[in-house]
Amino acid sequence: MGRENVVQVEARGIYASNAQSMKEQAFPTLLSGRFANMTVSEMYKYAWKNMTREKALEVPSYRDFLCQQLGSEGCEFYSARDVLKREYGEESTLFRYEKNRDFSYFSHEYVRPAGGLSDIANAVERSANRFGVKMYARERVKALNRKDNMFTVHTDNFTVSTKKLIIAVPSFPFKDITGDVAEEIKSNRQFEAIISKPAFKAAAIYSYPWHQTKAGSNLSRHDLAKWAKRPFPEEEIFIVGEAYSVLSEWNEGALLSAYNALKEGWEIEQPEHY
Questions:
Q1: CA distance 94 to 99
Q2: Which residue, among 96, 87, 12, has the nearest Cα to 47 in the 3D structure?
Q3: CA 2, chain centre distance (Å)
Q4: What are the E-state strand segments in 51-171?
Q5: Please, what is the angle between helix 40-47 and helix 62-79, to 10°?
Q6: Which of 7, 65, 103, 207 has its CA 20 to 30 A from that of 174?
Q7: Cα(47)–Cα(65) distance, integer angstroms
C-alpha cells in the first residue's frame, strides 16, 4: 500500500503536509532573500527581534506589524500556517507583545500530572503545609472588612484578621461577598470589566458588521493585571486569578497572576524555588 499524504496546511489553492513544502509551492519568492533558509518559527523570532513596548505602540495592528517586518509575502506565509483562517477582528500588536513577554515565564515542556489535575492541588497543599499554612475546606467567605490597619475575613464559622490579603475568588461568587473591602472592589471599573454579559444565539443573520463593534470596556488585560497586583495603593490587598492576567489560559494565567502578587507583596521573584 502506498503511504497516504497528510495535509496540514492550505494556501492559494495548494495543499501541503508541512510549512516548508507550502513555502516552496505557494510562496516561491521567499526561497531567495533573507527568509530563504528560515523556518516559520525563525521568521516569527526575526519579526520580534529587539522589540519594545514603545515600538509595539507605533503599529497598533498586529497584522500590519507582521507585514512591515516580514514583507507582504512573508506575512501571508506566516498567516497560512493556521488551519483556521480568521478574516475578521484585528489583534493588537501591544497585546501580542505583552502576551509573548508573559509567556516567557514558562517553559514549553508541557507535561500531564500522573494523577490528573488534582495532583496540582495536592502539591500546593503539601507546600502550604510545609510552611505552616492553616487551610479550611468548605468554609464560605461571607465578608471582607478593614479594621485597625488590619483586614478581617468572615466565614460561616470563623473570623480571621491579617495584615495582608490575597483574594482568589472568581468574579461571580465574589459578587455575593459583603464588607467594605469587597464592595470597594466590586464598584471599581476594572472589576466590572471582567463580568461577562449573558447571551444566547442559536443562529443569527446580522444586519450590520457586528465584529467591528467595540468592546464594552476600554480596559485591556494588561490594565486589569496591573490593577489586581495592588488594587488599593498602599494597602496590602492582592487579587489573583486568570481573569486578572494578560494570559487567558487558565493555568498559566492564574500562575502569572499569583507570581505578580508574590512579587508585589513579598518581593518573591522565583516562587518555584520555595
A1: 8
A2: 96
A3: 44
A4: 141-147, 150-155, 159-162, 165-167
A5: 170
A6: 103
A7: 8
Integer Cα distance of 93 and 68 in angstroms: 12
What are 182-201's pLDDT values in tens digits? 999 999 888 887 766 665 55
**Partners of 151 in the beta sheet?**
146, 162
Q: Is the pLDDT of residue 150 over 70?
A: yes
**Residue-level pLDDT at 265:** 92
Buried residues in 96-116 as b, exposed as e (16+ CB within 10 A)? bbbbeebeeeeeeeeeeeeee
Instruction: Give the amino acid at 53.
Output: R
Per the prediction, the chain carries an average pLDDT of 83
- 140 contacts: CB under 8 Å, gap ≥ 6: 155, 156
Over residues 19-49, the pLDDT tens digits come to 888 888 889 999 988 898 888 889 988 999 9
Q: At what angle do helices 62-79 and 93-103 cross, to 10 degrees?
A: 70
The length of the chain in residues reads 274
Measure the CA–CA gap between 239 and 66, rounded to whole angstroms: 35
Closest CA to 146 of 157, 158, 134, 162: 162
pLDDT higher than threshold 70 for residue 6: no
